[in-house]
Design goal:
The complex is a heterodimer of chains A (332) and B (422).
Chain A (H helix, E strand, L loop, with lengths): L53 H17 L3 E5 L3 H6 L11 E3 L5 H14 L6 E7 H6 L2 H10 L3 E7 L40 H7 L4 E6 L3 H12 L5 E6 L3 H4 L6 H11 L5 E4 L2 E5 L8 H5 L14 H17 L4
Parallel strand pairs in A: 1-2, 1-3, 3-4, 4-6, 5-6
Antiparallel strand pairs in A: 5-7, 7-8
Chain B lengths: L1 E5 H11 L4 E4 L6 H12 L7 E4 L3 H13 L5 E4 L1 H6 L1 H9 L5 E6 L13 H5 L6 E4 L3 H18 L3 E6 L7 E5 L3 H7 L16 E2 L8 H30 L7 E4 L6 E5 L3 H14 L4 E6 L1 E3 L3 H8 L4 E6 L9 H11 L8 E6 L9 H12 L6 E3 L4 H13 L6 H8 L10
Parallel strand pairs in B: 2-3, 4-5, 5-7, 6-7, 11-12, 11-14, 14-15, 15-16
Antiparallel strand pairs in B: 1-8, 6-13, 10-12
The chains are: A alpha/beta (332), B alpha/beta (422).
Chain lengths: 332, 422
Amino acid sequence: MTQKNTAEQTVKFYQTGTFTVGNRLLDEEFRTVQATEERSNSIDSGHRACQGCGQALGARYALDTAMRVTNNKIIAANATGCLEVFTTPYPETAWSIPWVHSLFGNVASVASGIAATLKAKGDSETRVIAQGGDGGTTDIGFACLSGLFDRNDDVLYICYDNGGYMNTGVQRSSATPGGARTATTMPVGEHPGSSFNTGKFLPAIAMAHEIPYVATASVHDLHDLERKVEKAMSFRGARYIQINVPCPLGWGSLPAHTIKLARMGVESGLVPLFEAEYGELTQSTKIRYQIPVEDYLKAQRRFAHVLKPANVAQLETIRALAEKNIKRYALL
Amino acid sequence: MLQQISGSIAVANAVALCRPEVIPCYPITPQTHIVEHLSSLVKSGQLQDCTYENVESEFASMSFCIGASAAGARTYTATASQGLLYMMEAVYNASGLGLPIVMTLGNRAIGAPINIWNDHSDAMSVRDAGWIQLFVESNQQALDVHIQAFKLAEALSLPVMVNMDGFILTHAITRVDMPDQEQVDRFLPPFIPRQKLDTESPLSIGAMVGPDAFTEVRYLAHHKQKEALTIIEQQAEEFANIFGRDSGGLVKSYFAQESDIVFVAMGSVVGTMQDLINDLRSEGYSVGILSLRSFRPFPANAICNALKNAQQVIVFEKSFAVGMGGILASEIHMATQRYADIQGVQISSVIGGLGGRTITKQSLRKLVDKAKQGDLDAEVFMDLEANTVVRELKRQQDEQSSGPVAENILRDMGVVSASKTH
């Protein structure tokens, strides 16, 4: 193998039967940072995340990668939400990097402020990462995030998208998929679950700001996530990565199924993985083995009603969404 | 150096002398000229090593300050009125986190009805937010107090809000003595943060705190404000030594201790009152003023010391708590109750200057005359057009769908001649 790093790898090694990209078959130098004892460990063990939390996994890989490529020179700002709560139960903290939490809706601006200080002090080495859930990003933090994109502040914003306000007890956000049951979109009445033809897809909105780099990633392919974070850190200016992070509590799924569900979301076409630079799509991840959307839906209680014969129209709508993604992002 | 400039430009130049490192801004009348001028100072290179940023809202502006200050920068912004309300959540957060941000509030009324002119409703809306709140009487004080504000904020690791009356001060062109850089540097040392986001020594800032420690954290915020009572006085003295001027401090007495009737007030109205007091005293009246320069911390001891010989106190304020009355009056009342020897003092609460209504010497004189006759009510809305109020109340009584109050009153007064008749 002659490649410099995993980012340039063209051959992928999948673990038998799981489609998970494996470490063990790779040369040591190409293995994920998590595979070594010397890993940077941005988020320490002992935090209070639920079993099978996709966000804890995604955050650790993303930030460890950022630490590695910046030689541990990162400062993180965090929106209020699960990640904030489960990492910092007073007086403990799981963070081994400088970390600040201010409010639910302002993390993008707090991060911009940190970047402004670094600029004023002439520190171009230290980099800034903002993190929020989908509610803190697509709803309450949207204005601040758009401002960050507008000014092209030197911040990587990572959105951990689990499709709802899980920390407050699973309410609908503008990233909640159509049809999904949440505590505020219960499967009752004529249109059970979250309404269709609503919501927003923030990666596309980020692309419309023509910022240097936008990517979507998923916790089932951590090599890909690491590669995208590394790539994001190679740009200056505003960058946005949205990571699909299954939430056993909110999705009504088994903790052991987090990776599997993340993969199924991608393989069904409902979670497109792609990259864009300066507003232009540059790459999308092909679906390896396409699966029917119902296979993905039936592993989650939040979609149980969609699979009932009476709601076949909802299932058709979700299928159409997958088809649209496949076409739009050339996933096949 | 003596200069003939507006209050806003004076403040902007004073802020620049303090070497701020990060300034986010969002426009709102009447503070905008301050941040406009700072923008030019940064862009032209006159203010160096400073990041100036146009952000998308006041909420973003204060949040930007929070990030910048937590990362160790001397941080400044300005706002007013609705802007302060829009940033409210971050205003509380900045003080809760103990970040020494300095902010100018160009005091302005709060809507609805929308009104761009001066009163103190905005400042009073954040009176419990944990910020140090200072008030200034003149543009000279405005620029002097900003220089002190950075030193105070950084000594306490608390945010400081300098309140200057919108238009009356911000837009007034007056003579000011602008200090030079050497003087300011001598007074204000470089910023050493109490807490800082630093990759060499990683800290977590903003952790969740439960019932086990929340009381202690909140008590310490209160304790720090009490410490400020001493530090504000010390710094005013230090300032006077270097700059040769009396500016700042907790309170300023103009014949307060030796007068029967004493006004208590904050901000530019003190200037009008001083003019009146000079007239009245030459006519033989025993009347004085106590100007509050620090509202938070509330200098209860200093106030009581100044008022201990007063027989009647007229608390004049440009805002009120709707459904309760004068805010400052209530606090003055509370403070005097703690002093047995001044419990007998008569306290009247006067609300005036709302939404920019002119405060005339004539109207203030009437208050003094009434007080002298023992005839001043406990609560007075100065220059209130009673007929207009009665007319609107009658309209509401007569008809359920009487329409919007503000528009009805404007029509009654003939201000809006073209609006549809009712």
